Amino acid sequence: MNFDRFEIDKTAERYLRGESFASSYKFETGAQVSDLVDRFRMLTELARAKKILHIGCCDHLGLIDEKIEQGKWLHKLLHESGSEVVGVDIDKEAINYINERYPQYTVKYANITESLPEFLSAGGFDYVFLPETLEHIASPGIFLSKLHENCQAISKELIITVPNAFKKSNRQNGKHYELINTDHYFWFTPYTLAKSLLGAGFKMKWFTYAMYGRRTSTMNPLTLLRNRYLRQNPSAQDIIVMCCEF
């Protein structure tokens, strides 16, 4: 699958690493893109015929059945796309529920910030996926450092997605409230996510953006205008996607 990817130049990387400083640095967040891609399509295409470790695979327990029925449970979509997909989570209740109700999907308990469990030690994963998980963690820097330490022997690359602080609905919210998942601790920007990853020991490869849900074809003039705006200003899309080397 082809989608627009952006790289971080050497000058920006010096700021990210703390080797240079500016109080008002203009970080390039990416120019116009050719198309809008939803996160399901992007991640399933990246996973196609690959061996994937999916961290934080369960989702909220009360939403699993609904998302499976709607074709929106990411772990199922990855399972159908990858050659082998192993899901891990720390939510024991959700893991037990999935293993009892949907045993065809590989879901196991593992706390990646602790020692690597034996069932992952064989490694050989093409990617570690960490989709929309980091914002749920109170100490993301510590988590990413442990992830780097414990998973560098079993995979070469990390794909991470997080909600985008610059997304269009945040920019245009003039109603004096914050629309947010109440389980979230953080919003991220491309710069702050890249700085967190580099600080944890990862090496940047590329970043891009994605929309949260599947697109529906429509000729609605307002939707067409919105889509054109988001193609011209990709940093206003819903999700930041980054690829890093361990």
Strand content: 15-25%
For the record, the CATH architecture stands as 3-Layer(aba) Sandwich
Work out the number of β strands: 7
Structural class: alpha/beta
CATH topology, anyone?
A: Rossmann fold
Output mean pLDDT: 94
Query: How many separate structural domains?
Result: 1
Give the terminus-to-terminus CA distance.
Answer: 23 Å
Spatial strand sequence of the major β-sheet: 3-2-1-4-5-7-6
Name the shape in a single word.
globular
Helical percent range? Answer: 25-40%
Write structural notes for this entry:
The protein is α/β, with parallel strands linked by helices. It has one domain (32-245): Vaccinia Virus protein VP39 (Rossmann fold). It is built from nine helices and seven strands, in the order H-H-E-H-H-E-H-E-E-H-E-H-H-E-H-E. It has helices spanning 10-16, 39-47, 64-70, 74-81, 92-101, 140-151, 168-171, 190-199, 221-232; strands spanning 51-55, 84-89, 107-109, 127-131, 157-163, 203-210, 239-245. Helix 2 packs parallel to helix 4. The model has no long low-confidence stretch (mean pLDDT 94).
What keyword list fits this structure?
246 residues; seven-stranded mixed sheet; 17% strand; globular; alpha/beta; Rossmann fold
Task: Put the structure in a nutshell.
The chain is an alpha/beta fold and 246 residues long.
